[in-house]
Specification:
The complex is a heterodimer of chains A (160) and B (793). With 160 residues, chain A is an alpha+beta fold. Chain A has helices at residues 26-33, 89-96, 106-119, 125-131, 143-158, and strands at 5-11, 14-20, 52-55, 58-61, 74-76. Chain A folds into 2 domains: 5-80, Ubiquitin-like (UB roll) (Roll); 89-158, [2Fe-2S]-binding domain (DNA polymerase, domain 1, Orthogonal Bundle). Helices cover 33% and strands 16% of the residues of chain A. Chain B has 3 domains: 4-31 and 486-632, Aldehyde oxidase/xanthine dehydrogenase, molybdopterin binding domain (Aldehyde Oxidoreductase, domain 4), CATH 3.30.365.10; 35-141 and 220-238 and 246-252 and 259-285, Aldehyde oxidase/xanthine dehydrogenase, a/b hammerhead (Aldehyde Oxidoreductase, domain 3), CATH 3.90.1170; 371-468 and 636-784, Aldehyde Oxidoreductase, domain 4 (2-Layer Sandwich). In chain B, the strands form 8 sheets. A 7-stranded mixed sheet of chain B has the order 3-7-1-14-11-12-13. A 6-stranded mixed sheet of chain B has the order 9-17-16-15-10-31, sandwiched between helices. A 4-stranded mixed sheet of chain B has the order 20-28-29-30, with helices on both faces. Chain B is globular and about 95 Å long. Chain B starts with 22 loop residues before the first helix and ends with a helix. Classes of the chains: A alpha+beta (160), B alpha+beta (793). The complex binds FE2/S2 (inorganic) cluster (2 copies).
């Protein structure tokens, strides 16, 4: 498996021209080539959702994509959401509602929820549950995660 | 303890819904889990694991793999035999057979997934490439898969040296069980099967060993719940003094018991790092996790209760076979899970006569270890099913039969028939609170109407008690190599006035950085945000084990209380000189010492400066280090209890089970942070629901594992878990410092039984009995078909 390919990937707004092995997974590229370890690996087979990132605005599993498939595309990871002291509304809501325990599923949950909040009205809690059903959390029993997302939806509705 | 008067006038910090200290870093992608660690030139390990259930290793040929690109070294058990001393999980239990713990299989393999060869390469990708080039010649041996066959004479042996597959057997007995059962007016019995589970923390295990050749010192970062236990074991296995081995559990992505034992991979990376003088790293993939992580709950229970005509249980008998898998886990031993089943089977009930027998049987499957609830999910499932079966037989309501049998408050403390002592805990209060919360009577009425319309709706109750925060007098396996009964806190205020509190516990989602800081702030008189908690580090205190068995708040919280009170006394002493007031006139609050009734005060930082830096400001006697280390031992531990009630509806077409409502009323004593307690209960219940309805590790008759991906081993998603209501019956524990009780596992303990009873209740018109979990749609279908066939014939 020798030989590398040149690609240009935009991650959280910064552009990286890099040379990678064709078989390198996108998630390994983010974590180990760029050092963005906020995106996690929970299964490497597309079930747990811990590796969820946004690719050109849509949620995708970084363990099921190769880095070279991200060539010319724009990736958003948890590191781009908001920093300590300036967390965004979704991060703050997770904090307020205790929607994370070990925190390992959290980056994937946040990215999936970001996508859901952009695209769907999420009128009922069942809608939120269905939207998050591709992300496994073993700690929280989902109760507080649903409440955290619900609070963001409600606040959004209240805003003019 | 401090003689200082109670000085808290502000709202209490213990008991407040404080947002977690851990969260900001975890929410912004700045957590530091083991695999996140950035190291200079690390080497990567991939393990060639056994694809045989039970076989002799004839030959390992690694020649081709050695030449593969990037490969630095390849080790087998033989290669490491000089580097690593054999460890054994010892115990004084009679008839116990320990099994040796090796980093790699030696001579033979005993389960599919057992590590046999370790390949070390420049990258993980290269290490995995080279794995395929290794040739292992196995001589297959008879598999040992069925635990009931494995106990028989003449069964093939997994560990020849033991001379038996029964690694330990025990009996608990009180009273005259046979006579009382024989004369009991009502008897109900059943054979119950709890199928094997696996913890599935979303972070798979990972460990990385760094070797400082100059200092001859090892540092292991490991996704573990028990850094102290691992440090002590590594020091022994590698023959290095403890001050040159440090085990750090950084941010850890869940454990649930699955990261609560010593693992071969941890020994391997350390031995390899020392040999190669390089950092050596291993991160499990999910398949390895499902193959080789410790599994849990695998029992066959034959049990019977005898009752009087009024529904009072007179006697209980149980025979348990626990399938413990291939090895006796370190340090807990094979006794851990199955023996807890018989210890806890009598539950929170007044039962005079009891006999529980248990055999822990080795099979060629992954070893079992601690998994959330340990033994009690099974014991509660069995006892609560028996209660409901008896209630049905006697036409007593399930809530009522429990009311008649729960130990009344005025009989607590009560010594259960297995020897466990329950201290004062809200057994009856929890039952009542759960019934109120769910609207029990209203549901029963609704159920009647629904049934008349042919709908399958069921209501299931489960009451249980557990022993938490256990002290030094109680041991899961008497004589095991560690002490689980104490924890230490070391608190200090440094010369900048900053407060550091260090512990031997190891949070992996519980939020101990938050809750322990609450306890310290409360007793020190400091501000919550000024305290930094150090945990998950074997170097934090001289001796500590970690976080498991619902112990950390009780033990570390107790130690924190003692140490904080001592430091507060030292601060007060120094401040009394600086403020020229007597200690009795001082109050400590929000990091300030004030002369009561005046506006004269001094901050912790100013006191610290006077003590450490401004020599001459204080007399010698008042310049002692503002620090204290205290160890706490709750001696026996304390009782936590709860009642869970589930309402389910079964779809008569698809046999899908939908949970309509789930309520928990629990008594975990004084709550430190209700937000965190609720989260723990929710998560525990979700795991219990998974165990009751979806999760099962399956092996085929050849010992091949059939659940090697998350497509086959089903972990519930947000759609399978209902909204969970939690009510607290907060009766402070009379036996622990601060009145805390443990509560990390309870959610799982009650949920399986509540679901099982609800499903059985829903199907009671069909005469279907639920005695096996998980109750998958397929099992349900077979049961219902069988019941229908019976009615037809
Ligand atoms: S790691 Fe990508 S879905 Fe699990
Ligand atoms: S918070 Fe631990 S897996 Fe979700």
């Amino acid at each position: 498996m020798s030989g590398t390919r040149d690609i240009t990937v935009t991650v959280n707004g910064a552009t990286y021209p890099v040379s990678v092995e064709p078989r390198l997974l996108l998630v390994d590229f983010l974590r180990h080539t760029l050092g963005l370890t906020g995106t996690h690996v929970g299964c490497e087979h597309g079930v747990c959702g811990a590796c969820t990132v946004l690719v050109d605005g849509d949620s995708a599993r970084a363990c099921l994509m190769l880095a070279i498939q991200a060539d010319g595309r724009s990736i958003d990871t948890v590191e781009g959401l908001g920093r300590i002291g300036q967390m965004n509304a979704l991060q703050e809501s997770f904090h307020t509602h205790h929607a994370l325990q070990c925190g390992f599923c959290t980056p994937g949950m946040l990215m999936t929820a970001t996508d859901l909040l952009q695209k769907y009205p999420l009128a009922t809690d069942d809608d939120i549950r269905r939207g998050l059903s591709g992300n496994l959390c073993r700690c929280t029993g989902y109760e507080h995660i649903v409440r955290a997302v619900r609070a963001v939806v409600d606040k959004r509705k209240a805003a003019p | 303890m401090s003689e200082a008067p109670e000085m808290h006038v502000r709202p209490k910090i213990v008991g407040a819904r404080i947002k977690r200290t851990e969260d900001p870093r975890l929410l912004t992608g700045l957590g530091a889990y083991t695999d996140d660690r950035q190291i200079v030139r690390p080497l990567h390990v991939a393990f060639r694991r056994s694809d045989q259930s039970h076989a002799k290793i004839r030959l390992i040929d690694s020649a081709a793999a050695r030449k593969a690109p990037g490969v630095v070294a390849i080790f087998t058990a033989v290669d490491l035999s000089e580097d690593v001393r054999t460890l054994v999980a010892t115990s004084r239990m009679k008839d116990y057979h320990a099994t040796p713990i090796f980093p790699l299989a030696r001579g033979k393999v005993r389960y599919v997934g057992e590590p046999v060869v370790g390949v070390i390469a420049q990258s993980r990708y290269q290490a995995e490439d080279a794995l395929e080039l290794i040739v292992i010649d196995y001589e297959p041996l008879p598999v040992v898969i069925d635990p009931e066959q494995a106990v028989r004479d003449g069964a093939p042996l997994l560990h020849e040296e033991a001379g038996t597959n029964v690694l330990v057997s025990r009996e608990f007995k009180r009273g005259d069980i046979d006579a009382v059962l024989a004369s009991a007016p009502v008897r109900v019995e059943g054979r119950f099967r709890m199928h094997r589970k696996t913890p599935v923390a979303i972070e798979p295990r990972a460990c990385v060993a760094e070797y400082d050749a100059g200092r001859q010192a090892l540092t292991l970062h490991s996704a573990t719940q028990v850094p102290g236990i691992v440090r002590d074991a590594l020091a022994a296995a590698l023959d290095i003094p403890g001050h040159r081995v440090r085990v750090i559990a950084p941010d850890v992505g869940g454990g649930f018991g699955g990261k609560g034992s010593l693992y071969p991979e941890e020994i391997f990376v350390c031995a390899a790092a020392r040999r190669l003088r390089r950092a050596v790293k291993w991160t499990s993939d999910r398949m390895e996790d499902l193959l080789a992580n410790t599994q849990g709950f695998d029992e066959i229970v034959d049990a019977e209760i005898g009752l009087d005509a009024g529904g009072h249980v007179l006697a209980l008998r149980a025979d348990v076979i626990g399938d413990v898998g291939a090895y006796s886990i370190y340090p807990w031993t094979a006794a851990l899970e199955p023996i807890q089943v018989v210890s806890f089977l009598p539950g929170p009930y007044r039962i005079e006569h009891y006999r529980g027998r248990v055999q822990a049987v080795a099979t060629s499957k992954a070893p079992t270890g601690p998994y959330r609830g340990v033994g009690r999910p099974t014991s509660t499932f069995v006892m609560e099913r028996l209660m409901d079966m008896a209630a049905a037989r006697l036409s007593i309501d399930p809530a009522e039969i429990r009311r008649r049998n729960l130990i009344p408050a005025d009989e607590l403390p009560y010594k259960a028939a297995s020897g466990i002592v329950w201290d004062k805990s809200g057994f009856h209060e929890c039952l009542q609170a759960a019934c109120n919360a769910i609207g029990y009577d209203a549901w029963r009425a609704r159920q009647k109407t629904a049934r008349a319309n042919g709908r399958w709706i069921g209501i299931g109750i489960a009451s249980y008690a557990e022993l938490t925060g256990i002290g030094s007098r109680i041991s899961v396996a008497p004589g095991m190599p560690i002490n689980t009964g104490t924890e230490t806190a070391s608190i200090r205020i440094d010369s900048t006035g900053a407060i550091t509190a260090a512990f031997g516990v190891a949070s992996h989602g519980q939020g101990l950085e938050t809750t322990l800081a609450q306890v310290v702030a409360e007793h020190l008189g400091a501000r919550f945000e000024d305290i930094r908690v150090i945990q998950g580090d074997s170097a934090a205190v001289a001796g500590g084990t970690g976080t498991y068995a619902s112990r950390s708040m009780v033990l570390a919280g107790g130690a924190a209380t003692l140490a904080a009170q001592t430091v507060r006394d030292k601060i007060l002493n120094a401040a009394s000189h600086l403020l020229e007031a007597s200690v009795g006139d001082l109050a400590v609050q929000d990091g300030k010492i004030t002369i009561v009734g005046t506006d004269r005060s001094i901050s912790f930082a100013d006191v610290a400066r006077a003590v450490y830096s401004e020599i001459g400001k204080l007399p010698q006697e008042a310049r002692g280090e503002l620090a204290a280390t205290k160890t706490y031992d709750p001696v026996f531990g304390t009782t936590s209890s709860a009642t869970h009630i589930a309402v389910v509806e079964i779809d008569p077409q698809t046999y899908q089970i939908r949970i309509d409502q789930f309520v928990v009323a629990e008594d975990c004593g004084k709550l430190v942070n209700p937000l965190i307690v609720d989260g723990q209960v929710h998560g525990g219940v979700a795991q219990g629901i998974g165990a009751a309805l979806y999760e099962e590790v399956r092996y085929d008759p050849q010992g091949q594992i059939l659940t090697a991906s998350l497509v086959d081993y089903l972990v519930p998603s947000a759609c399978e878990i209902p909204s969970i209501q939690v009510t607290h019956v907060e009766s402070a524990s009379p036996t622990t410092l601060g009145g805390f009780r443990g509560m990390g596992e309870g959610g799982t303990i009650g949920a399986l039984a509540a679901i099982a009873n609800a499903v059985a209740d829903a199907l009671s018109p069909l005469g279907v009995d639920i005695n096996e979990l998980p109750m998958t749609p397929e099992r349900l279908f077979r049961l219902i078909e069988a019941a229908k066939a019976e009615t037809r014939s």
